[in-house]
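WARN retry 2 of 3 for item q-0093 after timeout on previous attempt; input resubmitted unchanged.
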Amino acid sequence: MKDQDKRMLIARRVARELRDGYYVNLGIGLPTLVSNLVPPGIEVVLQSENGMLGVGPYPYEGEEDADLINAGKETVSEIPGCCYFNSADSFAMIRGGHIDMAVMGAMEVDERGNIANWMVPGKLIKGMGGAMDLVAGARCLYVAMEHTTHDGGPKILKQCRLPLTGLAAVNFIVTEMGFMRLTPQGILLEEIAPGLSFEQVQAATEATLLRSPHLREMPA
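OK item q-0093 returned
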């Protein structure tokens, strides 16, 4: 599967988790694709920590407004009723528990629900952004990421090795291989990508996966 196909499969599955009336923060990178995939009939309000509430889909070419950007500095559109505010108010919204759902990418997630997504030691980083606030303040955290690294190494580990963003913060993991729920017993595989077996997903995962008794095929 091509990288873009993987990313769209993951984003579409995350979009199915949106619920009417949710306030949602989409992290930089893959999670921002969800803004173009909100299911019909569902009204959600997307928040960006740089101070925008009511983020719309990516604009069509030629309709970009350089003053409308998300936290990743990508041009976005606005929905009716969109409003703007300073970063202090934006982070007060996050820290106050007013974000129903946050979607983040990650470099590593482990079976305790710990997440590492903000730095690799020795490499240049842009900064933490709102990651640590979101993992602590959002009511539910989804990790949307490719299942393995570019060289095929596992990203779902027994224990994270990189500097942590948050402890026991992750509720769900969505990859191109499956949909997983974090439980007190471990990582429960609830949905599996078409054409894959449980054993294939486990082979690409360092953490021990639990097989749901209701394991089903992940929607394409």
